[in-house]
Amino acid sequence: MTNRLIKTLPNCCVVHQDDFFKKPDQIEVGDDGFRQWDVMTAMDMESMTNTMKAWMENPVKFARSHGVPLSSAPEESNPDEQTHILIPLLDVFDKSFYITIPYEECKRRRSTRQYTVPDPPGLFDGHVWPMYLKHRREMESSGLHIECLDGLRSKEEIYTQVYESIQNNLLNPGRLLSIPVQNL
């Protein structure tokens, strides 16, 4: 979906959460014997936050440094009149999407993925699925507006739903559009 959004939305730049994981030897091993990749401490949050702030403070410079061709340059403004937003990441996102999927389908899809380091036996049932459920409960009780997407729908249907939601948000200018998409 991300690749398609990049192609259809002008001046689109992507920051991949996966680029901010700490090195494997810095990831805690839990009581279940598995490295805890699904917890906040597995992420270099300072680096990710700084990257997002750099994007917000100067989107044009950020886009150029990430090889994004700009279709039209924004109007120049006085730097003294700009508001530099320095807020936690949750406050940065204009839209949040969460792809939901039932256990059996999730397990089937994960089993077909090719990982550099294959999942050890028991990882899905002992760690991945329980963490998915934990994070989903936390997300649902957070009070944040998060759009849930049905992971059983076709990729085309999910893309269309996200694209239309983004387009609707773009009709309401004034904020940098930042959209995290979470799934397994």
UniProtKB/TrEMBL annotation:
<dbReference type="InterPro" id="IPR027417">
    <property type="entry name" value="P-loop_NTPase"/>
</dbReference>
<protein>
    <recommendedName>
        <fullName>Nicotinamide riboside kinase 2</fullName>
    </recommendedName>
</protein>
